[in-house]
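Supplementary notes for students who missed Thursday's class. We covered one full example, reproduced here. Read the sequence, then the structure, then the short commentary at the end.
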Amino acid sequence: MSQNKYFKEYWKLINNARLKFNPFCVGCEIHHIYPVSIYGDGETVQFTFDEHLLAHKLLWLGLKIKYGNKFVDTCLMQYAYFKMKIKKKEITNEFTKRSTFKK
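Structure (token representation):
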């Protein structure tokens, strides 16, 4: 991937994740460094949900700058980012419902 500001931030995030790998991590998510939808299977890192969400956002924005909105890979990363963003909202809403005590 050529380096624009989003890809540079993405690689910082990846390199940080490589340094803190924990095989016993609970709640970590696996992220393919080179997206499976674009490159096929490959090396993975562990992220928290928020780091994973950020990684997909950075990939989407990086591809958007490099290739534009209509490029298929840009669309795939945009889809992955918004799908995860909706998942986060659903998780947050569910947590809020469960932690609100009714009188």
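Commentary. The beta strands are 29-32, 44-47. The chain has one domain: 5-99. If anything here is unclear, bring it to office hours.
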